[in-house]
Fold this sequence. Notes:
The protein is mostly beta strands. The longest helix has 14 residues, at about 1-15.
Amino acid sequence: MKKLLLCGAAFAALGWNAPALAQQGSEVERENVDLVFYHEKRQDILVAASRADEILSLDDYTGSASVITLEQLDQRQVRNIAEVLRDVPGVAVSEVAGQTQIRLRGSEANHVLVLVDGIEVSDPFAGEFDIGTLQAEIGSRVEVLRGPQSALYGSDAIGGVVTYESASGRDLDGFSARVEGGTQDTINASARLGAAGDAWDVALSGTIVSTDGQPNARGGTRDIGRDSYTLSGKGAFEATDGLKFRAAARYVQTEGEFNNSESDTTSANFGLIVDSPDVRFENEAVYALIGAQFEVLEGRWTHDLSAQIADINRDTFGPSGRTSGSEGDRLKLSYVSAFDIADGHSLTFAADWERERFRNDDPSGFASTDRQQIENIGLVGEYRYSGDRFDFSAALRHDINDRFADETTFRVGAGYRITDSTRLRGSIGSGIKNPGFFELFGFFDGQFIGNEDLQPEKSTGWEVGLDQEFAGGDVRLSATYFDSELEDEIFTTFPPPTFIATPANRETDSEQHGVELSANARLGAGFSVDAAYTFLDAEEDGVTEVRRPEDVFSAAFNWTHPRDIASATLVVRHNGAAEDLAFTDPSFIPVRVTLDDYTLVNLAGEVELFDGVSAFGRIDNLLGNSYEQVFSFVSPGRSAVIGIEARF
């Protein structure tokens, strides 16, 4: 009953005065839709590929990128963004309760920058974002840039950038809502309200995800449940011709249960995940951004000033109360000046000032609770040329850090259209990742000791790719070879005689190379297929890196009725075998183990009941396979839901 009341409250809050606002929004013509989110053919506009606020298509980008459109999210009935990232070449996902990680091209999880409505959302404590807390809102879209992007965004972007964009009031006006329920007492609900006028637009959204969950310990019986609540809003206002203001805000609260590993060295289950009653976590995050943009010279020269904040709190609890906690926050100011020279040439300058802070809110009093702080200034220069057949881009960034040595990163890329349907592209770039607060200062005294002498990780990578279109663009094939090398990789050591964990920089290099293949086809009669395959060889000094499967494959088959009144989607995802670490030896020195490969099959369908109202249902893990993404954490089995969606 509590879940139903929460769903009803969210719908009521967003639906108040919906008819009047929807009527205003419906008067906006299609030609006024913000082109950053709309493309007649594939909705393939890229947002994060340049620091300039310009329209950039996949066809003009000199690197490797993928766009997951709002249509694809709808067809696959995506509720957790982490799941659909499995359909992107070069992406590996590993999920456990309380932490879902993504790795791009064999990078570490904290080497991937995640932007949500333009806001950096990583937790300063761990230096990465728990993407399992990012729920798919109605009308949203996702893009993934693969390869080093530090020349544009600085630290955290060694592997690439994942961008999530919620729909603005101009993209999707009116009132939309959906609610679904199913196995494991699952209740998911989302509602949004969008409106726009001649000079303004606004959107509000609320999402609730609640489930009692399933056991995640081998042979366990304790269900691992989770409740997540997201409230977000964004808006824009054109004060005068050429002067625009924008704002975005997001609040996320996640509560869930998790299991610990057996710590009794005499137990047969030592080092394995076991049922742990009354163990849970609570995470709370607040994100906000405000910005202003001014255009001169008939829009050819733009100046953009923005400020953003991220405030993240994490707590864990055991049978006796709170066991750990952390507080992290980020303040970032950015200025971007972009000049459209002429004939496809453009220049961009950007300056970023960023302050990250962290405090270990340890209730035991054993670990230091001093607030730590790091400041960084980044200066970016970017040149871009887009021609009929030839595209070129170059970026250079210099970072001035108050703790680490200054660093300069770069990226250069080019693309050439050999024929109207064949394009060759290539790029090379460097990346950097500063150590996180957790690695520098530790967290649990006596269990994990920080290392304040750590140095940033550095990477250089290159790629070459070929894109081929057939049948007037209805069939698109892409192949990319990539190669990168990581220096000063941060890893965890267990030095004798205490064997207490502490991080250090490796003296040897980590190497990643592989092949990414993708195919997208619109077959006629409403049928389409989107497929991706990745081969990855990631090694450190000849030893395979953990949680990086050698083979990952995904295929989504969709049928949509010609009048768009029904659809069905079958998604097949295969994860190859992967190495992992197990702490099953009483010395606490990790033992290498192999995680078996697994294949997941999801089936989803939708049918229109009447104008604006549809019923839908889906089955996840249709075959009921048992598998582990992380050693001894059993992933969810089969689940099913049915629901209803309305859009007015």
